[in-house]
Design a protein that fits this description.
heterodimer; B: six-stranded mixed beta barrel; 22 helices; 23 strands; 18% strand; globular
C-alpha cells in the first residue's frame, strides 16, 4: 500500500538547511499496523505528513496504492487523499465552532455525499465510538478522551483504507489512552491499515511492526512476531 | 514612566507593522478628508462674519414677495426716522453678467458691479487701499475699484483719477479697495456711487411710476433689538412706502444660504453643505472603525500580554497608561500625516472645487477645539475594547487559556457591515447625481439649444436690426432673432391683482420662434403689426384657467392683451425652476440669437466677428453658446458630483483597507481550522468559499441597510429639481454589485494565500 524509496525531505530557511528525512525506504502492506518511534526531531511527523499526502518529498519516490504520488500538485494530492486517508492528531484538531456531529461530517461534505447519507454514516460511526449521546456538543464541552474519540470517528467515517495517527494518546491519561489504542486495533482488525507515530512503548506494542527513526533515517525495524530485522 | 510607555508603544507599532500601517493610513486618509471638508463647511457657515459688526447688520426684505430690491428712497427714511438704526446703506449688486468697462484706450470684461455709497465703509469691513479724498467716493461721479480689477484694467499704472466707463456710465476712479474676501456674500469688482441716480443699476415699475431699487442694509444700534425695530418699521412703513406692506430684517449671515430672496448676492447651497458634512462624518467614522478593527485584531495578543503583566504585578492603572500611550502615539502620527496631506492636497482641492480654502484656518479656535474633541473621541472609542478586556479579566481563565476562545460575532460583523453600507450609500449617491446631471443635460428644453449663439448688443453699440440683416447675408447663418432677454435668464415679471401668481414676459421679433425652434401649438406667430396681441405658453393657459384660449383677453397691466397663439412650454428661466406662465409680445430688442449651420461654426464665427468689428468701434463682441450656457447651470451639481465621487473613492479605499485587515485577521485566526479542513479533504476552492462567504453575507446585509437610506436621501435631494430623473432599481443594484466586486477583489488574494498554505504548518503542535 505504501512504498517509499530513497525518500528525503529537506527544510530550507534563509540560513539553515535541515534534512528531516534521509534516504527512507519503507514498505507497508495493506492491513498492517505500523508504529514509528524515535526521539523528538527525528523526522517521524515529516514522514507521516508525506505518507498522508500532506507534503511532498524533496527526493525519492513514494507510491500510494501502487500509484506514484511523490510529485503531485497540492490539488491532486487532495484528490488522492479524499476518502482514502484518515488522520488522528495528538491535539485532536477539532474545529471549536462546529458540533461533534459537524466535525465528524466534515470529510463527507468534501466527498460530496448527500445530507441523508452523511447523517446515517455520522450517526453510525459516533454510536460505534460511544459518542452518540454527544452529537450536539461542542469540542470544549468534552473530555480529552472524548475529543479523541470524535477525532477518530472523523478519521474513519469515510471508511478510509489508511489511518495515520500522530501520537494519538499524547494528550490523554492512561485509561483514555488505552481506550483509543483499543479502538485503533479494532479498526485495524477490520482491515484498515494504521500507521502511528508514538513515543510510548506501550502504544507501540499494539502494532505489528515498530520502525525506529533517528536523524531522519530508519535505524531499526522490529516485527512483533519476529526478531530484529 | 511616560517615556518608557512611549518607547514600548513605538516598539509595538514596529512589531505590528502591517496592521499599524493599515490603521494609520486608513485613519490619516479619513482624517485629512474630514479636515478639508471641515475647512469647506466652516467657510460656508462663516460667510460674511468677517464684518466686524456682522451680528448687528441686517437687510430689509419684503415679507410677502421675498424681494430684497426695494425702493431706493427708503434709504433716507431708514436713516432719519428710526432711532434704533445706527447706519443705513444701499447696496445693489449686479453680478449676473460680465460688464464691459472702457478706459481711454481699451475695454475689458469685469464681473460684478455694485451700486452703493460711502456708508458702505461704515457698515462693512471693506479695506481702502488708496483714496483721493477722505471719503472713498469723492463725488457723485466717482467709482471705486478692487485691487485685482485695477491690476486687470490698468496693470501697474495708478488707477486713481483715471476715467472709467462702466457700461454706459462715465466715472472717475477715486479709490482702490482690497478684494472682497472669499467668505463674503457681497462680491464685485467695481463700486459705483449710487448717490448718482444714473449709477443705481436697477429700476422698477409700480403704481404708475418708475423708481430705482436697491438692497437696504442697516446697522442696528448696540442694545437695540431686531424684533422691536422690525415692529416699529412695519407699523410705519406704509406711510413712507406704499407698495410694501411688511418687511423682515434678514441677518447678514443668513443671506448667503437664502436663495428664495431675489438679489445679486453670492449664494451657497445649504443642502450641499449638509451632504458634504454628512460625508465627512461618515468618512471619519469609517476611519475610526478601521482603527477599532485594528485594535480588536490585536486583542488576543493583548489578553495574553495583560495576563502576563498582571501576573507579574501590574495594576490596571499601569496597563491603562501603557495602552493610552499606544493610542496617543498612534493618533499623533496619524494626525501629523493628515496635516501634511491637507497641506499638499489643498491647492488641488481648491482648483477642483473652485474654492479658496486656507490651511491657516485650522489654527482658529473652533477648529482646534473640534480637532481635539474628535481625537479625544477616537481615543475614547479605542479604549472601550481595553475597558471590556480589563473588566472581564480573571486569572483562572488566563491560566487555563480559555479566555482566548471568546469571540463576538456581532461585533466582528457589525463594523464591516457598517463600512460597506457607507460605501454603498456613497456609490448610490454618486450614481444618482451623475444620472440627474445626464438627464438634465439631455432633457428636452422645448427649444433646440444646439448650434445656437447668443450675442449681447450693448446699448447704442449698433443697430440690432441692421446687424441682423448683415448676419443673414452669410448662408451658414440660418436664422437670427431679436429679443429682450435670453432664454435661461428671463426674469422680467408682471403681476396683476387679478392673479395670485406672477407671469414672466419677453419681447421678441417674428423670427424668434423659428430661430429657437419653439413649437407653436395653436394660433399664429407675433407680427410687427401687433399692438395689444401676445402669445402665451401652455403653463399660462393652465394658470389662467383659459378654455377657448385663442382670442381671449388677459390684463397684466392697465392694458389688455389678446391671445393670438399658444406655444409648447420651453425652459426660459434657470433650469432648476419649473416652467411658469409666460407672455410673448412683439418688440425689437438688443439680445441677438443666431441659428448656425453645424458644419461651418468656425468660419461663421469669423464672419460674425468681422461684421461686429465693422459695425462697432472699440466694442468687444460678447457672446455665448446656448448649449454651454444651459450645461453650465449644472455647475454646482457637477461640483457636488465630483466632490462625492472623490470622497466615495477615498471612502472605498478606507473600507478596502479595513476589509483587508479583517481578512488578514480572520485567516490568521482560522489558520488551524483551514488546516483541519484541508486535511479532511477541503480543496483551495472550498477554503476560498469558506473565507469569502462572510464578506458576501456582509455585502448583502449592507445592501439591505443602505438601500432604504440611499433611496430616502436621494429622493430628498432630487426634490431640489423641478425636472428630475427617476430612481431606478438598477442604480441600487449597480452600487451593490460594485461594492461586492470591490470587497471580493480586496479579500480574495489574502484568502487565496491562506487557502494555499500547507496544513502541516498550521497543525504542527505548539
Amino acid at each position: 500500500m505504501i512504498k517509499t524509496e530513497h525518500l528525503s525531505k529537506i527544510f530550507r530557511t534563509e540560513e539553515v538547511e535541515t534534512k528531516a528525512l534521509n534516504d527512507v525506504n519503507l514498505h507497508v502492506t495493506e492491513g498492517e499496523f505500523v508504529a514509528i518511534m524515535g526521539p523528538s526531531g527525528c523526522g517521524k511527523s515529516s514522514l507521516l505528513n508525506i505518507i498522508g499526502l500532506l507534503d511532498n518529498p524533496s527526493e525519492g519516490t513514494y507510491a500510494f496504492n501502487g500509484k506514484e504520488v511523490g510529485k503531485l500538485k497540492e490539488s491532486q494530492r487532495t484528490q488522492e487523499r479524499k476518502g482514502n486517508v484518515g488522520f488522528v492528531f495528538q491535539s485532536f484538531n477539532l474545529i471549536d465552532e462546529l458540533t461533534v456531529f459537524e466535525n465528524v461530517e466534515l470529510p463527507l461534505i468534501y466527498l460530496k455525499i448527500s445530507a441523508s447519507e452523511r447523517k446515517r454514516m455520522v450517526t453510525e460511526v459516533l454510536e460505534r465510538m460511544k459518542m452518540g449521546h454527544r452529537v450536539k456538543h461542542f469540542p470544549q464541552q468534552l473530555s480529552g478522551g472524548q475529543q479523541q474519540r470524535v477525532a477518530i470517528a472523523r478519521a474513519v467515517v469515510a471508511n478510509p483504507k489508511l489511518i495515520l495517527a500522530d501520537e494519538p494518546t499524547g494528550n490523554l491519561d492512561s485509561k483514555n489512552g488505552i481506550e483509543v489504542m483499543d479502538l485503533l486495533t479494532e479498526l485495524n482488525r477490520e482491515g484498515t491499515t494504521v500507521v502511528m507515530v508514538t513515543h510510548s512503548d506501550r502504544d507501540a506494542n499494539y502494532a505489528h511492526r515498530i520502525i525506529n527513526l533517528f536523524d531522519g533515517k530508519i535505524v531499526t525495524e522490529t516485527r512483533k512476531d519476529a526478531e530484529l530485522v | 514612566m511616560i517615556r518608557k510607555n512611549l518607547k514600548i508603544a513605538i516598539r509595538d507599532l514596529r512589531r505590528n507593522r502591517l496592521f499599524s500601517l493599515l490603521g494609520i493610513i486608513g485613519f490619516s486618509a479619513g482624517f485629512s478628508i474630514c479636515l478639508i471638508i471641515g475647512l469647506f463647511v466652516y467657510k460656508e457657515l462663516t460667510i460674511d462674519t468677517y464684518n466686524k459688526n456682522y451680528d448687528r447688520i441686517y437687510r430689509l426684505i419684503d415679507s410677502e414677495t421675498k424681494n430684497a430690491n426695494l425702493d431706493y428712497r427708503l434709504n433716507e427714511t431708514l436713516k432719519n426716522k428710526y432711532a434704533a438704526i445706527e447706519k443705513a446703506c444701499p447696496i445693489h449688486i449686479n453680478g449676473a453678467k460680465p460688464w464691459t468697462v472702457y478706459t481711454d484706450t481699451s475695454s475689458v470684461y469685469i464681473d460684478g458691479v455694485i451700486a452703493t455709497d460711502n456708508s458702505v465703509f461704515d457698515l462693512m469691513s471693506v479695506n481702502v487701499v488708496k483714496s483721493m479724498s477722505n471719503n472713498p467716493f469723492a463725488d457723485k461721479n466717482s467709482s471705486i475699484i478692487t485691487h485685482s480689477a485695477a491690476n486687470k484694467i490698468f496693470g501697474t499704472v495708478d488707477p486713481i483719477g483715471k476715467k472709467l466707463k462702466v457700461g454706459t456710465n462715465e466715472t472717475i476712479i477715486s479709490a482702490v479697495i482690497k478684494d472682497f474676501p472669499h467668505n463674503s456674500s457681497i462680491k464685485g469688482s467695481i463700486l459705483l456711487n449710487s448717490e448718482n441716480s444714473d449709477f443705481r443699476l436697477n429700476s422698477n415699475f409700480a403704481n404708475g411710476e418708475i423708481f430705482n431699487t436697491t438692497n437696504h442694509y442697516i446697522l442696528l444700534k448696540e442694545n437695540e433689538s431686531k424684533e422691536s425695530l422690525e415692529k416699529t418699521i412695519n407699523e410705519s412703513i406704509g406711510t413712507y412706502y406704499k407698495t410694501v406692506k411688511a418687511i423682515t430684517l434678514q441677518p447678514l449671515n443668513a443671506i448667503y444660504f437664502d436663495t428664495d430672496v431675489i438679489d445679486g448676492n453670492n449664494h451657497g447651497n445649504y443642502s450641499l453643505v449638509k451632504i458634504i458634512s454628512i460625508i465627512g462624518i461618515l468618512i471619519l467614522l469609517l476611519s475610526i472603525i478601521n482603527y477599532i478593527n485594528y485594535i480588536l485584531s490585536l486583542q488576543y495578543k493583548r489578553i495574553k500580554e495583560i495576563g502576563i503583566k498582571k501576573v507579574n504585578g501590574a495594576s490596571n492603572k499601569n496597563i491603562v497608561s501603557q495602552y493610552l500611550a499606544d493610542v496617543f502615539l498612534w493618533v499623533l502620527i496619524a494626525f501629523i500625516i493628515s496635516l501634511i496631506t491637507v497641506q499638499f492636497s489643498l491647492p488641488y482641492f481648491n482648483q477642483i472645487f473652485q474654492e479658496e480654502l486656507k490651511i491657516q484656518t485650522l489654527t482658529t479656535s473652533p477648529f482646534i477645539i473640534s480637532i481635539i474633541m474628535s481625537l479625544a473621541v477616537v481615543v475614547l472609542i479605542s479604549s472601550i475594547p481595553l475597558a471590556i478586556l480589563l473588566s472581564k479579566f480573571n486569572y483562572q481563565n488566563f491560566l487555563n487559556n480559555t479566555v482566548f476562545k471568546t469571540k463576538n460575532k456581532f461585533r466582528s460583523s457589525l463594523l464591516p457591515i457598517f463600512q460597506l453600507s457607507i460605501c454603498m450609500l456613497l456609490i448610490t449617491g454618486v450614481l444618482t447625481i451623475q444620472k440627474q446631471i445626464f438627464y438634465a443635460k439631455h432633457k428636452d428644453l422645448g427649444f433646440n439649444k444646439n448650434q445656437l449663439l447668443y450675442i449681447n448688443v450693448p446699448f447704442k453699440a449698433l443697430d440690432p436690426e441692421s446687424f441682423k440683416a448683415e448676419l443673414l447675408n452669410n448662408p451658414s447663418i440660418e436664422k437670427v432673432a431679436l429679443s429682450g432677454g435670453t432664454l435661461g435668464d428671463i426674469s422680467m415679471k408682471m403681476s396683476s391683482i387679478k392673479w395670485d401668481f406672477d407671469a414672466y414676459q419677453i419681447d421678441v421679433d417674428d423670427d424668434f420662434l423659428e430661430t429657437m425652434q419653439i413649437e407653436l401649438l395653436k394660433g399664429r406667430n407675433v407680427s410687427p403689426n401687433d399692438k395689444k396681441q401676445c402669445i402665451v405658453n401652455e403653463a399660462a393657459i393652465k394658470a389662467f384657467e383659459l378654455k377657448d384660449s385663442i382670442g381671449e383677453k388677459i390684463k397684466p397691466f392697465q392694458d389688455e392683451f389678446e391671445i393670438v397663439g399658444i406655444v409648447k412650454d420651453f425652459n426660459f428661466g434657470p433650469i432648476h425652476r419649473k416652467i411658469e406662465p409666460l407672455l410673448i409680445k412683439y418688440g425689437i430688442n438688443r439680445n441677438v440669437s443666431v441659428r448656425m449651420d453645424a458644419n461651418n461654426i468656425a468660419s461663421t464665427m469669423q464672419y460674425i466677428n468681422k461684421v461686429w468689428d465693422d459695425m462697432t468701434t472699440n466694442e468687444p463682441l460678447e457672446y455665448e453658446f446656448y448649449d454651454l450656457k444651459f450645461d453650465s447651470m449644472y455647475k454646482k451639481e457637477e461640483l457636488l458630483a465630483n466632490a462625492c465621487s472623490l470622497f466615495a473613492i477615498i471612502a472605498i479605499i478606507i473600507t478596502c483597507l479595513g476589509l483587508w485587515g479583517q481578512i488578514i485577521f480572520i485567516s490568521t485566526n482560522k489558520s488551524k481550522e483551514i488546516g483541519i479542513r484541508k486535511v479532511n479533504g477541503a480543496t483551495i476552492k472550498d477554503i476560498l468559499i469558506m473565507l469569502n462567504k462572510n464578506f458576501v453575507k456582509w455585502v448583502l446585509v449592507a445592501f439591505v441597510v443602505a438601500c432604504p437610506i440611499a433611496y430616502f436621501a436621494m429622493s430628498k435631494w432630487l426634490e431640489n429639481f423641478a425636472y428630475k430623473t427617476s430612481l431606478n432599481w438598477w442604480v441600487f443594484a449597480l452600487a451593490g454589485i460594485f461594492t461586492l466586486l470591490i470587497a471580493m477583489l480586496t479579500v480574495s488574494w489574502e484568502s487565496y494565500n491562506a487557502a494555499k498554505q500547507n496544513p502541516v504548518d498550521s497543525l504542527r503542535d505548539e
